[in-house]
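Design job #97: recover the sequence.
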């Protein structure tokens, strides 16, 4: 049984974000994923294991080859978290913009 980790843990690391980006285009054999990185194969395997534990990738066995494929729908929880803060900052920046425009208008009217 795979321990489920938090997807935020997976995307906290730039290498894992790069792996997700790489796999978002197509499923790739594990060796081909490893070839994209200047690190040891065990280090890449550790990143892949964490991504799998977070549910962000899965494996598909084709013959003797194991393909990694992105499970991008699992990033929905991250997207929802980002959207709430995006909305917060948009509201505050819109208020600031209004205040600055009002201040600018008041200065022109003086």
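Job complete. Output follows.
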């Amino acid at each position: 049984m795979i321990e489920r980790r938090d997807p935020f843990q997976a995307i906290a690391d730039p290498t894992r974000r790069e792996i997700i980006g790489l796999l978002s285009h197509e499923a790739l054999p594990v060796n081909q994923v490893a070839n994209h990185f200047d690190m040891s194969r065990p280090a890449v395997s550790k990143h892949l294991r964490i991504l799998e534990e977070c549910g962000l990738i899965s494996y598909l066995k084709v013959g003797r080859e194991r393909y990694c494929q992105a499970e991008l729908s699992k990033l929905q929880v991250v997207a929802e978290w980002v959207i709430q803060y995006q909305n917060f900052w948009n509201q505050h920046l819109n208020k600031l913009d209004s205040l600055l425009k009002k201040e600018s208008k008041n200065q022109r009217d003086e």
